[in-house]
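INTERNAL AUDIT FORM
Audit reference: QA-55
Scope: verify that the stored structure record matches its stored sequence.
Auditor: D.O.
Record contents follow.
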Amino acid sequence: MNYRDIGFRAGLEIHQQLDTRKLFCSCPSTLSEEFEANFERFLRPTKSELGEVDIAALAEAMKKRKFVYLSSKKNCCLVEWDEEPPHSINKEALEVGLKVALMMDARIVDEVHIMRKIVIDGSNTTGFQRTALLALNGKVKDVGIETIAIEEDAARKIEEKGNVVKYGIDRLGIPLIEVATSADIRDPKHAREKYIGSIFKVVGKCKRELGAIRQDINVSIRGGARVEIKGVQYLSAIERVAEKEVLRQLDLIEISKILKERKVSEDDIERCELREVTDMLRDCKSKMIGRGLKEGKRIFCIKLPGFGGLLKRENSRLGREFAVHARMRSGIKGLIHSDELPGYGIEKKFVDELREFMELGEDDAFAIFIGKREIVEKAVEGVKERAKQALKGVPEEVRRALPDDSTEYMRPLPGAARMYPETDIPPVRITKEYIEKLKRSLPEKPEIQM
């Protein structure tokens, strides 16, 4: 594939844990196997300093989840519990971050100001992540470095059941250096950025175990959209993740063209009504439906106008996208769509009856939901929203990397509305004398081919 012809652009965000004490308290940066205490929270979005509420925070708030936090006295204190103000920024961690910036020839800021980044997915007990810009406009080899920041790592997810999520707060507050490249990456192979990792290694005080370095990649192509993919565990996987994202975006662009040819509109999607089909499917051999009926649930169906043959395409898996949006909106476990039928124990005669009952045309699809009506109605809202996005092509969003290097939807792409100043920690002045002192202690730059 000629990536230049399709307008491929990509930038990396590399997050490296530091091997120091935590960023805003003196607790050690260790993880626990056992926890002695727990507490619960509900998190709600707040307005930024611009008076706006971030779209990603709103999307999280709609899930209405309860968060249970597990704590150990070995590596947690009242700062992690958000029952005590943060302490001054860890000077050792700050020094490591500034050395990394100098190794990348970046322009260091005159003052380090701590900001709050609104995050209400439960990964921070406060409802925000503390972050601070250290430097701008660096360069490594032929890739520009837009920003270098220091921030606190998030709590680690232990378990998720229904609308209850458990987090261990042992990881919360471990210092992270975030290096964000400019969109200079020309193709997925170029995105394997080993040189930045080698700088962390020679500077020192960086953790080396699995999970200590995490990569996010921002990918876009001409006619597509910027998509942020979070949590790529290995540098070696970045190339494959980027390649699959390009194929996904190309396929979504093609689906958009097909839907336009079929003259599908947002009004067509919005007008589709939910119909109950419990009696129609009661005698089918589907284990999923049989289990739902035993639990007292009902079976519902909705028309997806113009989506016939588009939900199971290998590179985009739009049916799976619909299922994720349904689950996030309602908590429902999943859905069955017509492109994967006959299957799941639903024989052809039941499919034909459903198509007739739902008054489907040749190009139409349908989705089946199992649950209580009020829950299914919320799930349908999520499906309709994603179906409308499919008319436009590729939505801007945040996705998570999966073990097979494909990705899954997480939330809308956040904007500037999620930032506001930290009022509990004063800014730190960075003097020229201090910078000169750090320069004298820098190691040799690594010589590694990219």
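Auditor finding: record pair retrieved intact. The chain has two domains: 9-226+413-440, 266-393.
Action required: none
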